[in-house]
């Protein structure tokens, strides 16, 4: 499991220009089963994506497709962690198989 921490490196007016394409990117990877949850930081300095992937390299490949990455709108910190405790409702997400791309 991975936490992707996005921090904006451009002003919000530049972020807004690419927001719709960024949302399309998010939707694509929700459909593929990689993204579990995402949202803006408060205050609005970036965002967080909770995702699943086989390895950090796959996470990096996915991130490189984000319009925020391609247009140098945000920097990305990837945090990998082992899920060891979770609520029962999370079991279906943890045990679900998926294709990496």
Structure description:
The protein has helices at residues 12-31, 56-63, 67-70, 91-95; strands spanning 2-8, 35-40, 46-51, 74-80. The protein is of the alpha+beta class. It has one domain (2-95): Dimeric alpha+beta barrel (Alpha-Beta Plaits, 2-Layer Sandwich), CATH 3.30.70. It has a four-stranded antiparallel beta sheet, with helices on one face. Strand 2 and strand 3 (46-51) form a beta hairpin. The model has no long low-confidence stretch (mean pLDDT 93). It holds the Pfam family YCII. Belongs to the YciI family. This is YciI family protein. InterPro entries: Dimeric_a/b-barrel, YCII.
The Rg value, from CA coordinates, equals 14 Å
Number of domains: 1
Number of helices: 4
* Estimated structural class: alpha+beta
Please supply descriptive tags for the structure shown above.
26% strand; YCII; 4 strands; four-stranded antiparallel beta sheet; 101 residues; alpha+beta; elongated; Alpha-Beta Plaits; 37% helix; 4 helices
Secondary structure layout:
Blueprint: E1 2-8, H1 12-31, E2 35-40, E3 46-51, H2 56-63, H3 67-70, E4 74-80, H4 91-95
Antiparallel strand pairs: 1-3, 1-4, 2-3
């Amino acid at each position: 499991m991975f936490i992707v921490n996005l921090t904006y490196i451009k002003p919000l007016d530049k972020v807004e220009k690419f927001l719709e394409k960024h949302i399309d990117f998010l939707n694509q990877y929700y459909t593929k089963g990689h993204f579990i949850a995402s949202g803006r930081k408060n205050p609005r300095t970036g965002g967080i994506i909770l995702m699943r992937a086989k390895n950090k390299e796959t996470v990096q490949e996915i991130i490189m497709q984000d319009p925020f990455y391609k247009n140098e709108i945000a920097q990305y910190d990837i945090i990998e962690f082992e899920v060891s405790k979770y609520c029962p409702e999370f079991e279906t997400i943890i045990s679900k198989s998926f294709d990496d791309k």
